[in-house]
């Protein structure tokens, strides 16, 4: 249970940091209209808006769709990282409850353990998540 708790809290922190970092990257990209994405290109042929950029030989990559592609990849990644953080937090809460530390640990787990054979293991974990959420 302690391993579950420590790994879920670590994953919750890392997922939260990832979603915050992606939100910051999206905000900076939208604010600069994509010009931060093409800063490696030292071409004067590039327009002021990265969405209208053309492919030149001075750029190590094709700049025509980098703005739309970056946002199309970053937004779902940020949503999934935030969902992962929430689920990891709930997993940590269940680990705390199973240790007898969490908010519902004193009542729910003792009631279910006192009656052996009445509840299956899967039902116990689902009940923990629902009763304390």
UniProtKB/TrEMBL annotation:
<keyword id="KW-1133">Transmembrane helix</keyword>
<feature type="signal peptide">
    <location>
        <begin position="1"/>
        <end position="19"/>
    </location>
</feature>
<dbReference type="InterPro" id="IPR020977">
    <property type="entry name" value="Beta-casein-like"/>
</dbReference>
<keyword id="KW-0732">Signal</keyword>
<protein>
    <submittedName>
        <fullName>KCP3 protein</fullName>
    </submittedName>
</protein>
<keyword id="KW-0472">Membrane</keyword>
<dbReference type="GO" id="GO:0016020">
    <property type="term" value="C:membrane"/>
</dbReference>
<dbReference type="Pfam" id="PF12304">
    <property type="entry name" value="BCLP"/>
</dbReference>
<keyword id="KW-0812">Transmembrane</keyword>
<comment type="similarity">
    <text>Belongs to the TMEM54 family.</text>
</comment>
């Amino acid at each position: 249970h302690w391993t579950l708790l420590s790994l879920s809290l670590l994953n919750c922190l890392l997922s939260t940091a990832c979603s915050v970092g992606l939100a910051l990257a999206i905000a900076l990209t939208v604010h600069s209209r994509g010009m931060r994405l093409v800063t490696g290109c030292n071409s004067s042929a590039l327009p002021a808006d990265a969405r209208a950029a053309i492919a030149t030989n001075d750029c190590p990559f094709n700049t025509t769709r980098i703005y739309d592609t970056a946002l199309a990849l970053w937004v779902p990644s940020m949503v999934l990282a935030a969902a992962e953080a929430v689920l990891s937090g709930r997993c940590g809460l269940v680990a705390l409850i199973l240790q007898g530390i969490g908010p519902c640990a004193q009542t729910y787990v003792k009631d279910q353990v006192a009656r052996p054979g009445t509840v299956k293991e899967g039902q116990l974990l689902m009940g923990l998540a629902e009763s304390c959420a």
